[in-house]
Every structure is written in C-alpha cells, then in structure tokens.
Amino acid sequence: MGATIPAGAWVEIERVLLQPEQRAAGLPPETASTPYVLRMNGFLTADAAEGDEVTVRSLVDHEHTGRLVRVDPHYDHSFGATVPELLRIGLPATSLSEAASQSDPDTATGEQAPGNEHGDEHGDGGAR
C-alpha cells in the first residue's frame, strides 16, 4: 500500500463502464477490443492510497466512485509534432491583406474615407 492521500485532495479516478464484449457491434476492431473507461477528477471524500476504490466529489458536486490513479492530475496531451506544411497556410492571405492595405491610402495613413469621419461602417454617423 502506498502513501496515504488525505481527504479533500484533487485526484483522478477511473472506472470501466463497458468491457470489450459489452461494447456495441460495428466498432472498429481496435476500439472494440478495449474497455470503455471513465476518467474523471474530483476531491477525495476519505483518506486513501493510489489503487484504492474511492469516492470523489466533482466540481459540480456529484459523487463518483472508481480506482484512484493519480494525485493532482494534469493534462499532458498534445496535438503531436509540428507539421511544417501547415505552418505557411495562413501566410499568403496575410501577405495579400497587407498588400491591399498598403495600396489603399486611407488604410495606410490611418485616416478615414471622406464622408466617414465617425468611423462607422456606413458613413452616416450611425443614423439609421
């Protein structure tokens, strides 16, 4: 048995909701062969150790039971490695909008177009 984790600690629990043989037909084989697992975070309601069956109270004040797997859980996922081809996707559009603003003298100097001194979309001072 590991170190005692005090009641009130922020922890992650997991509970198997469906075994592989209980899962719906038609799932891809790699999905169908794994259990359907609930993972959630909450505050321990009683002292426990990692691996114990525990009850936690969630942030929305619901109680859930499961096996204690982690104390002070954090997110450690990512979106994977950088894809160099995706880095430049927005650059042509940015270059085009910069070129357009440089060719428009009102935009380039920061001045408003004649008749649009109030900076409104329709040039009518907001009177509609």
From TrEMBL:
Signal peptide: none
InterPro entries with a match to the protein in the record: OrtA (IPR047755)
Basic and acidic residues: bias regions: 117-128
Region Disordered, annotated ranges: 94-128
One Pfam family recorded for the sequence: OrtA
Biased composition (Polar residues): 94-110
The protein's name: 2-amino-4-ketopentanoate thiolase alpha subunit
Organism: Mobilicoccus pelagius NBRC 104925
